[in-house]
Design brief:
By secondary structure, this protein is mostly beta strands. 0% of the residues lie in helices and 50% in strands. It is built from no helices and 11 strands. It has strands at residues 3-7, 10-13, 18-25, 33-39, 46-52, 57-60, 68-73, 78-83, 92-98, 114-115, 119-124. A hairpin with a 4-residue loop joins strand 5 (46-52) and strand 6.
Length: 125
């Protein structure tokens, strides 16, 4: 059974940093893409970042490029999202996601079969 468990959310001030973790079990972690998405209140889920496990190729949404960093630890089957220079518009529930096949378009939510429970990130001005 595939399980993705996020941790590390919280409430911070604008300009602060937060780090999210996603522990993965029951999934071929080192084979496929891992991604982070987020959903802000009243908005649709949006892509944040992804990392292709086999090549370490990384993808970012333009809105977070230069501020967020995705990384992974294969030995721990964990993917991370370091978020710096946080803005109020980064407020959302953040989800990690894993596919059950090769991902062609990392930003497409439908490419991912497994999702974590979500971690709330709140940034106040």
């Amino acid at each position: 059974q595939v399980q993705l468990v996020e941790s590390g959310g919280g409430s911070v001030q604008a300009g602060d940093s937060l780090s999210l973790s996603c522990a993965v079990s029951g999934h071929p972690f080192t084979t496929y893409m891992m991604a982070w998405f987020r959903r802000a209140p009243g908005k649709e889920r949006e892509f944040v970042a992804a990392i292709r496990s086999a090549t370490d190729t990384i993808f970012y949404a333009d809105s977070v490029k230069g501020r967020f960093t995705i990384s992974k630890d294969n030995a721990k089957s964990t993917v991370y999202l370091q978020m710096n220079s946080l803005k109020p518009e980064d407020t959302a529930v953040y989800y990690c996601a894993a596919p059950n096949n090769r991902v062609i378009t990392p930003a497409r939510a439908s490419a991912y079969a497994y999702w974590g429970q979500g971690a709330q990130v709140t940034v106040s001005s």
